[in-house]
Amino acid sequence: MQYSIVTFMPGKKYSFGTESKMKALEPGTKATLRFLGDPKVVETEYGEKYSIPILLLIHPSYPSLSSKGMEVSWETKAQVIEKDLVPLLKESKEFQKDYLEHTWELRVDDGGAYRLEG
User: Fold this and answer.
1) How confident is the prediction along the chain (118 residues), in pLDDT tens digits per residue?
2) Burial environment of residue 75 by CB neighbours within 10 A (0 to 12, 13 to 18, 19 or more)
3) Is the pTM of this model over 0.85?
4) Are 102 and 94 in contact (CB under 8 A)?
């Protein structure tokens, strides 16, 4: 028998089932998002990735997103998370605050590199 995962999410008492994952961005595209929590390392069928709860506001694969956005999980191996984001979250109280309060733009350049601006 297989059970669904029950997780605790900020602002919610319970959440049942599998969380929605953000679709990958294609090179040359961008998305707008807000972070809802810290990155956590998860094991996937493609190896270890970071899983980050986000509020997705604009994404080319979701043309009919409501103005309130959609809560999803962003699973990524993007180096910007490991090399820049995680260390800043550990070291800077100011960044920890900005991380959750700012609206961020995630870009993927034509070569596939990720850039995060907020």
Assistant:
1) 444 444 444 556 776 777 789 999 999 999 999 999 999 999 989 899 999 999 999 999 999 999 899 999 999 998 889 999 999 999 999 999 999 999 999 999 999 999 999 9
2) middle
3) no
4) no
